[in-house]
Amino acid sequence: MLRDEVLALLKAQGGAPLSGEAMSQRLGVSRAAVWKAMEGLRQEGYVISSAPRRGYALEDSPDLLSPGELMDSGRKIGSNLVCLDTVDSTNNEVKRRAVDQVPEGLVVVSAQQTGGRGRRGRSFVSPPGGLYLSALLKPDCPLEQVSALTAWSAVAVCDAVEQVCGLRPGIKWPNDVILDGRKLCGILTELELEGETAALRYVVAGIGVNLSQSEADFGPEVAPVAISLAQALGKAPRRAEMAAALLDALDKLDRDFPGQWDSWLERYRADCITVGRQIKVLRGQEERIGTAVGVDHTFALVVRWADGSEEALSSGEVSVRGLLGYV
Ligand code: BTN
C-alpha cells in the first residue's frame, strides 16, 4: 500500500523533511498520489508538517501497528509483514501462510489474540495492550541444535526491551522473560518437520510482550504473575517501536544462528536468573527440589539434587523460588 511506503520514507528521514517530488520519484508514483497518501496518514493520527520547498516531515506518530511502521529493507526478518488487529494466534497465522515456497522472514503481528497459545498446551491470555508477534525461520543446522532457538529468542527479546526501554529483563529458564519477579513476555517456538524424512521444514518463533496492560486487563488468574512495561516503568513504548526492535533482534538472531553459538550462550548465561536458585522440577506426578547450578553448552539447565548428584534438564516444568508465585 502506497501509504505504508510513504510512511516508511518519512520515518527513515528521522524527522528531517523530504520533498513530495523526491518521494514521487523514489516510489514511481505521481505527486498527487503522494499527497493523497499523506492526507490518509494525517487522518490516521500522524502529525506531518509541510513547508514549501522543504517538503514533508514526520513530527509525531500514533500508537499504530502497520507495515509502514515496520518496513526496513535491511532486515530479512519482517521482509514479508502482516499486521492484524486481531487473530486467533499469530503462530497459527504464520503456519497457515507457511506453504511451500514462502521464504524465511514472514512475520505476523497482532494487537490482540483470541486463542493465544502457550507452552505445554496452555492458553496465553492476549488482551489489547500487548504485542503478539510470530516469525517464520528456516535455520540451516542439524536438528539437535534447533531447540536452542527457544533460549536464543529469549535473549533477543531482552535485547529488544533493552533497546527500547534502557533496562534489561532476566530470563527464567528456558525462555520466560522476567521483570520484577513477574512475567513480561512469553515465547512459544514450534517446529514443523517433514513427515517422511523428519527433516526440519521451518520454525515459528512466537513472542507475546506485555506493554500497556493493567491488572484488570490480565484478569485475576494472570495478574499476580504478569507485569507490563507500563506497570513497571509508568509508561509503555509505542507498539510499533517495540515491534521494530523485536524485528531487529530476531534478524540478528537469524544471522547468528547457529554460527555465533558461544557468544549467545554467554549472553544467555548472563541473563538467566534461574541459576543459583532453588527450583522445583515437575515430571509427570513426580516433584523434586534441587538447585540450579548452571546452563550447559546445549542450553540445558544443570540441577544439583539434595544427594549431590547433578543432571542436565533439556525440558520440563521448572518453578523457580522467588519467581512467578513460587515462594
Ligand atoms: C508461554 O509463556 O507459555 C508461551 C507464550 C507464547 C505466547 C506467544 S504470543 C505470540 C505467539 N502466538 C501464540 O499463540 N503464542 C505465541
TrEMBL record:
Cross-referenced PANTHER family: BIOTIN PROTEIN LIGASE, BIOTIN--PROTEIN LIGASE
EC number(s) on file: 6.3.4.15
Lineage: Bacteria, Bacillati, Bacillota, Clostridia, Eubacteriales
Protein name as annotated: Bifunctional ligase/repressor BirA
Keyword Aminoacyl-tRNA synthetase: no
An annotated GO cellular component: cytoplasm
Positions of the DNA-binding region: 20-39
Family, similarity comment: Belongs to the biotin--protein ligase family.
GO-annotated biological processes: protein lipoylation; regulation of DNA-templated transcription
Catalytic activity: biotin + L-lysyl-[protein] + ATP = N(6)-biotinyl-L-lysyl-[protein] + AMP + diphosphate + H(+)
Domain of life according to the entry: Bacteria
Keywords: ATP-binding, Biotin, DNA-binding, Ligase, Nucleotide-binding, Repressor, Transcription, Transcription regulation
